[in-house]
Amino acid sequence: MQKKLHFFIIDDDKSALHIYENLLKKAGHKVTATTSSQTALEEITELQPDCVLCDLSMPGIDGMELYQAIRQLDTIQQPTFIIVTGKVFEYDHRRALEMGVDGYIHKPINPQTFLDEVLSVYLGTMKVHFWGSRGTLPVPGEKTLKFGGNTNCVTLTIGNNYFFIFDAGTGIKELSNHLLKENKFPLTAKIFISHPHYDHINGIPFFVPLYMSANHFEIFGTRHAGIGIEKLLADQMDSVYFPITMKEFGAKISFRDLCEESFNIDNIKIQTILLNHPGKCLGYRVEYKNKIFCYVTDNELYLEDSDSFNQFDVDQLIDFIREADVLVIDATYTDEEYLKKSGWGHSGVSRVVEVANAGKVKLLCLYHHDPDEFDKQIAEKLKSAKELLKKLKSKTICCASNEGMEIVL
User: Fold this and answer.
1) Do residues 301 and 103 touch, judged by C-beta distance below 8 A?
2) Which of 121, 239, 244, 335 lies 20 to 30 A from 12 at CA?
């Protein structure tokens, strides 16, 4: 059960203040409310609330100035700070995140979702959603209804501020349909491409938000033979291959080439690792508020009796995924299938399970299912993974990723 929190609300709009106060009190939380930002700092210092909700545009001291003043206090337990504002300009949102604000909620609020949004920010909630779990080739039809037929696309939502998209196979079209239906715009998102093999990028031309001028995307990926991620994506939409080029995109788009490195997006740590796959392929590790998400697709774990086996590489991967709350990882083949396809750049399920167990992963999500595996075969692969985990007396939980599945941390 979620503990009851103390909220401190500042808004010069008394009617808005009353709405927030009622919603939070109805959920059993303690609320202190004021219309004056000028007296708020002294009260916050004295009361030390768990969370501060503050309007951005205020007479006297605005929301960002109050935020900075609170963060300079070293005599209190720092509260979660959430801006609640009617300003919808992308500049204000971006500036607030760059300065370290924990959350940013637009007015008018939705009374049905407001409490969940606030608590999601306070708890640093991560939501993992699968839009496509297949590798190599889409597999539509009645034999793939349970686990789905679309190729690689997973999203990670952190609080209400950050939206990360991992790979852009045909599953990104399902994501596009969802965003259009829910009218989730204007949208700011980061797109992380593992590598430019076609099943990881061929949904890009069908992702409608890229054509909408109010949206903002930063696309990350690795260089191949001196070719950066921007050109790699543009080339698949060259007019020889596709009737629409990237010049038709209306959104603001920037690109960043990555290798094996660590960097931060505001207070979120991102780490990458080069994977064992033809060409350059990146795995991603995301850390935020003691929660860890790892996305490791298209990676071959050799059998220990293989001439190609290298314990150093395995140990590096185990360190990379260590203590992950969720690990989405290439488990393309059953053990029997792998024996026939060793050297193809993908893993058999038992080696994946062994590595996840060694890394003390909490939830292992088998991913990148082979196109020749239908629902029945994937279910059998999952069963064998669970049996091995039981044999290892592992605390790791295992599932087979499927379209529409959502995991909340």
Assistant:
1) no
2) 121
